[in-house]
Every structure is written in C-alpha cells, then in structure tokens.
Amino acid sequence: MSAMLPRTRSSWGGATAQVQQTPSRETKHQSGDRRFEMLDASMKRQKYAPDSLIEIMHTAQELFGRLAPDILHYVARALKLPPSRVYGVATFYHLFSFTPPGRHTCVVCTGTACYVKGADAMLARLEQSLGVVAGHTSDDGEVSVSVARCLGACGLAPIVVFDGQVAAHQTIDAALARVEPWGRHGPR
Ligand code: FES
Predict the structure, then answer these.
(1) N or C terminus of the chain with fewer C-beta within 10 Å?
(2) Which of 47, 70, 92 is the last residue of a domain?
(3) Residues 45 and 114 in one domain
C-alpha cells in the first residue's frame, strides 16, 4: 500500500458561499452543476444518515475530484451536521483531498480483484516514476495520483485510469509507458 502522509490542511476561508440559505433537505446548488444533483441522489439513497458521512464524502470526492469547502458545507447542511464535524472527518482520513486534481490524473484501482493482480506493486512503481504519492498532486500542479476502491469492472483487472481513460489488464511496464510522457514531478 502507499505510504500514509500527513494531510495538507486547507482552510474553510475563501469558501464560495453558493449554497442556498433555505433550510431544506432537498438541497439545490445555485451553480446548476449537475454533479450536485448526483450528490443529492447519493445522500437521498443514504437517507441523509449522519452515519453515512464518509460514504457520502467519498462520492463527493469521486464527483468533484476534491472536497472543496463549499462542498463540505453543502454536505454538512444536507445531513444537518455541524460543519466542524464534517471538516474534522475530512481532515482525519488521508483518502480525502482538498487540493484540485493535477492536469494529468492517474487513478489505480486497489480493490480486491486488482490487488491480487498486482495493483499495489504497480501503484508503487507509478508513484516512484512520477514522484507523487497517492492521494497527492505534484507541487507544480501537473500530476495527481490516487487510488480507488473497486471500479466495478473486476474482469478487466488490474485497472488504471489515466486522464479519465480506463486502461484494462495493465502491466507495470504498460502503466509506466503511459505516464512516461508526463515526466517526473517530485523529489528523487
Ligand atoms: S477491484 Fe478493481 S475493478 Fe474491481
């Protein structure tokens, strides 16, 4: 598995207050961004249960690529939780990210089927090649590496998603060849 690094803290300051002020569960985001509708559907499926907070934040991160402050506020309001609690959970777990994804993205599936076919070794080599640890974006903003739970296509394991495109039955050599043009972005 990848190394667990200390989280980079981000501030609630600068949050874009785009959430409507009406205290309704059926939240609507003023931006009109359809991803919020998908997030709403996910929260509705979970019956807005506070116990589902981690699952819901996972969905939010998969939809938006990161947990920006306005997204955390949105979730807190929908679940009727104090924003401080939502923020606390988001900062506690290293799988959540506050930083925008890089220009290039590499998502390694580490679900069971991919894991038994060498996903961990592949992730380690990709991290080494790119100089970026999973869950992080390079300082120059060029490359993000992350892991996913099962992507739902286990018959294609192991899977890596490069810049949004699914690559099936990946080998380490094939994966390294895909990111080679991206260059190295971290310390050697
Ligand atoms: S475990 Fe990777 S797609 Fe299911």
Answers:
(1) C
(2) 92
(3) no
Backbone angles phi, psi at 33, to 5 degrees: -65, 120
- Reported pTM: 0.57
Task: State in Å: Cα 155 to ligand 1 middle.
Answer: 8
Contacts of residue 68, defined as CB under 8 A and 6 or more positions apart, other chains included, come to 15, 16, 98
Widest pairwise Cα distance in the chain:
53
Measuring from each residue's beta carbon to the nearest atom of ligand 1, which residues come in under 6 Å?
A: 109, 111-114, 150-151, 153-154, 157, 159
The CA-CA-CA angle for residues 188, 165, 105, to 5°, reads 30
Domain containing 149 equals: 104-182
pLDDT tens-digit profile of 88-110? Answer: 998 888 778 787 788 998 989 89
The domain that holds 45 is classified in CATH as 1.10.10
